[in-house]
Amino acid sequence: MNLARVLRAVLAGVTLTTVGCAGPSQLTASDKSTLASESSAALDAFNNEDPSLAELLPKSVGYALFPDVGKAGFIAGGSHGDGEVFEGGNKIGYADITQATVGLQAGAQTFSELILFLRPEELVQFRQNQFEFAGNVSAIALKSGAARTADTSKGVVVFTRAKGGMMAEASVGGQRFRFHPVEQVR
User: Fold this and answer.
1) Alpha-carbon distance 117 to 157, whole Å?
2) What is the pTM assigned to this prediction?
């Protein structure tokens, strides 16, 4: 884990959450290439860690994949990451994820996040920047067989895969997503 990268990502996440600027619409060609490689590697890692994901992924109408989300905090904290969004196996855009939290927390970590949209209406909401997690949707820490036992009745399934670091927290906060179609990110 590169701590400087995590801290920069968190600072960007807190800034984006509070100010609401920048994001995937300003990715350079190099950034997009790197993100594509990281997304491909992250999806491979998700599938390798849980082979049952191969059964669930084709049932989704689309997915958002954030290969490298940095999170850090000490009382106040935040997280940030950029990702790619796919529908029917085709890349339709880019997104970012930010979160600001307040509460008992200390540490830094990086993780990957995969959001499967099992119904078209959730993907449409995501694309219109109106997507919010319902209180009854929670992230599933990836392990072998997790996809097979995931509750798909809510239309969205979220998987996280720890990459490095350690964070202890008892905090409140919500994730915020911003979607940018491929044609807007040049």
Assistant:
1) 7
2) 0.78
Q: Do residues 103 and 73 lie in contact, with contact meaning Cβ atoms separated by under 8 Å?
A: no
Q: How many CA atoms lie within 13 A of 10 on its CB side?
A: 21
Could you please report the per-residue DSSP string of 71-100? EEEEEEEEEEEEEEEEETTEEEEEEEEEEE
Encode pLDDT of 115-145 as tens digits: 999 999 999 999 999 876 654 455 677 777 7
Kindly give the parts of the chain with pLDDT less than 70: 1-25, 132-139, 165-173, 185-186
d(CA 95, CA 117): 14
- Angle, alpha carbons 138-142-147 (nearest 5°): 80
Q: Give the position of tokens 């915020």.
A: 176
Name the DSSP letter for residue 60. S
Burial 115-145 (b: 16+ CB within 10 A, else e): bbbbeeebbebbbeeebeeeeeeeebebeee
Alpha helices by DSSP H, the chain? 3-19, 29-49, 53-56, 120-127, 146-149
User: What residue spans define the domains of the chain?
Assistant: 3-184
